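Batch manifest, entry 17 of 40.
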Amino acid sequence: MTIKSPIAFLFCLALTPKIVDAEILDQVTNSKPLLPAFTAQYNILHKSDVVGNAVRQLSYQGDGKINYHYQTKVKWLIFSQKRSETSILSIDDNQVTPHHYTYRREGTGKDKHYEWLYNAKNNTAQDLGRSRNIAPLDFSDNLQDKLSYHLQHRLNLIANASQPQYVYKVVNTSGTISDHVYQYDGEEELMLPYGLIKTVRFKREVKQKKRITYAWFAPELDYLLVKLYQIKSGNSQFEAQLSSLEINEKTNLK
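Output type: structure tokens
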């Protein structure tokens, strides 16, 4: 017997208080989210030399929201930089809704810090760093912040990885909206520090910045990003390769 939801289980239990099926109870109390909590570690390379590391994490908060975090640390010759992005978001019916976005960059070059609050119900956003409100915004069109669209792309690949391209509307730190496009670019088997793994490759080009980014996702890891390679003005910028992955399969939805 299968119970599709905790609510249905409680209703059934109310009608038959003397009978408790241990297997059904286990289904309800140990239900898994679409994506379990995880921590993925990456090596960052420049011209084949390891120059830093990156961490991508997903965790569930006590209020049921998701903390999605990405951080990089790079040191190469006189260049040293640390970047950190966090998106507090929720997922409903396979759709990501951002609530709070923070970004910080420190080290070589100008330090930067951004913080945004989003209200999808009111179609508004607050740029806390500049103390201004942005409205109206159309969250009905799956509007994302600069990190949450990464997670939306992964969910879309899990649901249907056969599309030639995926387009995401993203709120930029300037307050403007731009389309972030992933174009299917083939399949490839990679040997990474993590091991040998089959992947699908996507390409994202930003012509005005003369930047091309290639991203590899592994179907057997629920389309986790396993490699990233960026080129700017024809020059190789950096490469990130998955080195380890820790998954918390016992994560429960609140």
